[in-house]
Amino acid sequence: MKGKEWYQADEVAQEYDSKRFSKGGRLIDRREKEAVLAALGPVEDKNILEIACGTGRFTVMLAQEGANVVGLDISRAMMVQGREKARRAGVADRIEFLRGDAARLPFPDDHFDAVFAMRFFHLADTPAKFLAEMARVSKGQVFFDTFNDGSLRVAYNWLLPMGSRLYSEGDVRRLLGDAGLDLAGANHDFVIPFGFYRKVPNGIAQPFRSLDLAVGDSPVGDDLASVSYWDARAESADEASRAATRASDAE
Fold first, then answer.
1. What is the number of structural domains in the chain?
2. Is the pTM higher than 0.90?
3. How far apart, in whole angstroms, are the C-alpha atoms of residue 129 and residue 244?
4. Residues of the domain holding 178
């Protein structure tokens, strides 16, 4: 299966967290959550939209930090897992899960304090439309990650069952400009791609992560990183709406 079909399968949703965020994948989970909190925080009483919320890893975390969160996803099966996770965490009253299309968000302009998407743009078939819509409904902040085309990710990308879109920094900057977004900050990480960590026990993953961080802190670290986290700021609603039109015409 590829893309949307793969992502929406019941069996994929049921095993998503256990396959990706157990063993060495716990390192990935922790780092991604740190990246989201560092970019969005403090989040107490903020209204936040998560695009492609999946099983609610970040949605629930932000609700636990006091945010009011809307989680939007195309997969009913993923959101079933998210709702159960929110119920167990005691934060279901702070989260609304919606099934919807990220290219046509059902919200007015400037509706959320922040909008973010993690593990989404590598699957995005129309990234310009998605980013323009994120900018439109945000009062200011848009945060997302990408997988990078100059990294070891290329070596195993063809093995992934859902396919994967890779980006250069130039690609991201063009998308931001077309969406009416200004880049406020960027962080780059994981010279060793995610797939390796998911396959090995946590005890084995830890030394490799130390090596990964050492290379990442070197002068070539940013160039070799397989993942980048992009923190951007939206222009006015009128400018964002015009950017959305430009993105729609370009696709």
1. 1
2. no
3. 7
4. 3-245
